[in-house]
Amino acid sequence: MGTAYTPGLTVSRDQIVRKVRRLPLKGEVLVSSGQSVEPDTVVARTQLPGILQTIKLAEKLGVEPKEVASLLKVNIGDQVEVGQLVGESKGLFGMFKSTVASEYAGTVEALSDVSGHLLVREAPIPVEITAYMKGQIVEVIPEEGAIVETRGGLVQGIFGIGGERRGAIRVAVSSPDEILNENHLRQDDAGKILVGGAGLTLQAIRAAEKVAAAGLVVGALRDVDITQYLGYDIGVAITGQEAIPLTIVATEGFGNLAMAERTFNLFKEFEGRDASINGATQIRAGVIRPEVIIPNPSATGSAGTTSSGGALDIGSHIRVIREPYFGLIGEVVDLPPELHVVESGTEVRVLKAKLADGRVVLVPRANVEIIAS
């Protein structure tokens, strides 16, 4: 059973990364295959239908719904502005008329003779999809978007918040076990992606926001700090849509975990380069990993390809994702074929891993993920 599929986490200095950039509905594609793009290059754009608003004409005019059509002062398809007259009653002897002004700007879409409601569609909402990362268009998806490819460093994290951003990398601490605090922040960190070590303080997050940093990457996050920063408990839903001005990514987990040395050294190697960062995370079906992508156009030779998992084998680098060894890095040294009974009484397949501190431990295979390189 050494070939059992195991979730993977990529940390690589030379990787081929492809991203599908797709509109939420059909629109116009603005790039062509083979075109070089920057992170802020608009790949495709469309317009979402505006919000459909309701004006209760019958109720406001004090008439039966079937009478509203004769009292309407606009036609279906007309453009209306806020405050424009849309309905007027006949009144009594031509006097004491009731009038209704539109509360919305948009297009008159329909009138219901059942409810007496006038429907106004507000202006369309423009939507643009950017390339997100520096690279090349390798495929155009007609009317929907394109696929962008780049080559360079890729670090996938465990958890993140905040959406897509870009910035130059600055390693703000001296070692992977150092905690990032507000004293590590500088005034010239605006627009940069700052790399810390074992974790960060709430004051560091607020200081990063104050200097307008683009992102923070650390080994681990404390749930209490994230909750205090956001003002609410994030729960288990997909992240990445938070209304915050920076993106935060944890590469190892929660609590106080040093960033893996190979990950920290990768960031040191690419310090000063522009990168793209995204904190979007989904841990259930359809796993989405937070990530930092560091394009490296000067790379030569063969490169890896992104993978979300693979087959366990002797020598595989893994991270333990459950207690009591949560967050620890190791190397698979044995894959026993027989089942082992764990504390819960369940029989499971296990592996033996040599941890970074030299210990050899027995871990259920379901409790690890491969670190793809």
Task: Show the helix and strand layout.
Layout: E1 5-22, E2 28-29, E3 36-37, E4 42-48, E5 52-56, H1 57-61, H2 68-71, E6 79-80, E7 85-88, E8 99-101, E9 106-111, E10 117-121, E11 125-130, E12 135-141, E13 145-156, E14 159-161, E15 165-171, E16 179-180, E17 192-195, E18 199-200, H3 202-210, E19 215-221, H4 223-230, E20 247-254, H5 261-269, E21 274-278, E22 291-295, E23 304-305, E24 309-311, E25 317-320, E26 329-334, E27 340-341, E28 347-348, E29 350-355, E30 360-364, E31 368-372
Parallel strand pairs: 1-23, 1-31, 15-17, 16-18, 17-19, 19-20
Antiparallel strand pairs: 1-13, 1-24, 2-4, 3-12, 4-11, 5-10, 6-9, 7-8, 9-10, 12-13, 13-22, 14-20, 15-21, 21-22, 25-26, 25-31, 26-29, 27-28, 29-30
Strand content: 35-45%
- Judged by helices, strands and strand pairing, the structural class is mainly beta
Radius of gyration: 28 Å
What count of domains describes the coordinates? 3
Low-confidence stretches: 1-6
Provide the CATH architecture of the largest domain.
3-Layer(bba) Sandwich
- Report the sheet with the most strands, covering strand number, pairing sense and barrel closure: 18 strands, mixed
Gross geometry: elongated
Counting DSSP H or I runs of 4 or more residues, the number of helices is 5
What share of the residues lie within helices? under 10%
